[in-house]
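G., before I forget:
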Amino acid sequence: MNYERLFAFTAFADPMNFTRAARQLHISQPALHVQVRKLAEEVGRPLYRRSGKSLVLTAEGKALAAFGREVQDRGRSVLEEVRGQSSTGPVTVASGEGAFLYLLGPAIRRFPKERWPLRLLTASGPETVEAIRESRAHLGVVGAAGAPQDLAATPLRTIGQKVLLPPGHRLARRRKLRPADLSADRLVVAPAGRPHRAMLDQLFRSAGCALQVAVEASGWELMIHFARLGVGIAVVNDFCPVPRGMVGVRLMGAPDVTYYLVERDGIAGPGVKAMRQLIVDTVRAG
Amino acid sequence: MNYERLFAFTAFADPMNFTRAARQLHISQPALHVQVRKLAEEVGRPLYRRSGKSLVLTAEGKALAAFGREVQDRGRSVLEEVRGQSSTGPVTVASGEGAFLYLLGPAIRRFPKERWPLRLLTASGPETVEAIRESRAHLGVVGAAGAPQDLAATPLRTIGQKVLLPPGHRLARRRKLRPADLSADRLVVAPAGRPHRAMLDQLFRSAGCALQVAVEASGWELMIHFARLGVGIAVVNDFCPVPRGMVGVRLMGAPDVTYYLVERDGIAGPGVKAMRQLIVDTVRAG
DNA sequence: CTACAGGTATAACCAACGACGATAGCCACT
DNA sequence: AGTGGCTATCGTCGTTGGTTATACCTGTAG
């Protein structure tokens, strides 16, 4: 296998667009196209396929792109080590949902970004796992139903749910609440299909009471915002800070969701190791 | 970094000889030499150095050669996976001393060699560790003072020492022996410098008695052979079978030596995983 | 339906890299 | 001093990969 072609292909696989990838590589579009075609011939399988207007990678293409990224990443780090330079390769962290906002803040703040540039990749849970598996990110943080066999996953923190209420609300003085207590209220919830919404639906159904939707909002920030405006009361992860002028009450019966740090097993550079340690320490401490 | 040059260099790094390596690669010696020179220029460090007649790798050269081997190994396996062929890359096991003879026999016998060719690399303890670190072998088995930080080591079995005696010997009926019991006898031992010999020297010194050498032999097989010939009595690892017509008596006071399976952390192919499991199972069982 | 926009794929041409044979240099051994 | 085995460099030539020009596809807008 010709590795220059492999790297050309990985460069293409990121934007899935020959023209833009070629610009990135400072070569012409035909040159890049030929490289990829020859790689596919070498491998003996198509690496991508048309889907209407755009192109999508085949399974083989994904595997090769992942391998290429991995080799380049390791290669840069080996080269820096050999040259005696301190490692300087960027560290990429992917994360779903609110983890960036509420879990990873301290780690990101304290990470020495002048030594290793930090790249953040915001994605949903499955997308995060995919980014790790395809070597597009070094570390990922996902909640609950995340990590499969081939990725190393270390539990970070287990988190419950709480209800955000205005101070004058009839339930605001309670120490804890159950789903049945909320059946009279209209709630601010995530849109259908999102895992948090699915969890709530399931919770109310098994408690035998109806969930009344005030408004659907995507993202914790937005949900909290609507709750502050008095549109409805919100059920959010325990890691969300209770905004000024509201009260938070523990919601019982909701399944605790565990956040995991996922990573590819393999040889991590010093920057990745540092970030890994920082995330584990700060999240477990906080 | 140009990877074709890197692979040319790894091919050279194995025999440390341009002429032979070039023949192996089916290119001319000057062609290979230029590749390596250009790689060194690219990296900015010398990759090897003359030492009298022969050439030796610098630290940088070793690191690059290790990386190159690793990439080629993974690359082959990825390619086979992508092509849908079952993995067929050879599995290399390195081991020191008697482990091949007495510990790994069952694993080697039961390993499906028709699926994955098996390559065995006989080496001393430190050489085994070096072979793993330089990606020249996938798995290694070493006794005791083996595995440092950067390699994953799993304990396999802890083994004591025993004394091989002719049946008529005055100590042959004893259940166990101490170094002092042997001070009147002449022993078959490993040559000076070998770890087993160092261990015995240390043992007798701390017991305050002298060790009398009958003959020095390298290798368990040879030591046992001389013991059978009646040249002297031998102290050997517990895993050596007691030969027909002799008796083995446990030697107390000798430090138990633990055998470890060492490997590079990283992504192992299916063949390596199978061998790993086989070694762990058979050695722990036996 | 036609024209257009954005991107993919192929062709013809040219520069650069890499392989080769020849050969000089180095080192150990006889 | 001479020889064998190997490393290192040079000039030459073919293959590979890059470039521009251009045809082709697919969805969108007039």
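The first strand of chain A starts at residue 48 and ends at 51. Chain A has a mean pLDDT of 89.

More on Monday.
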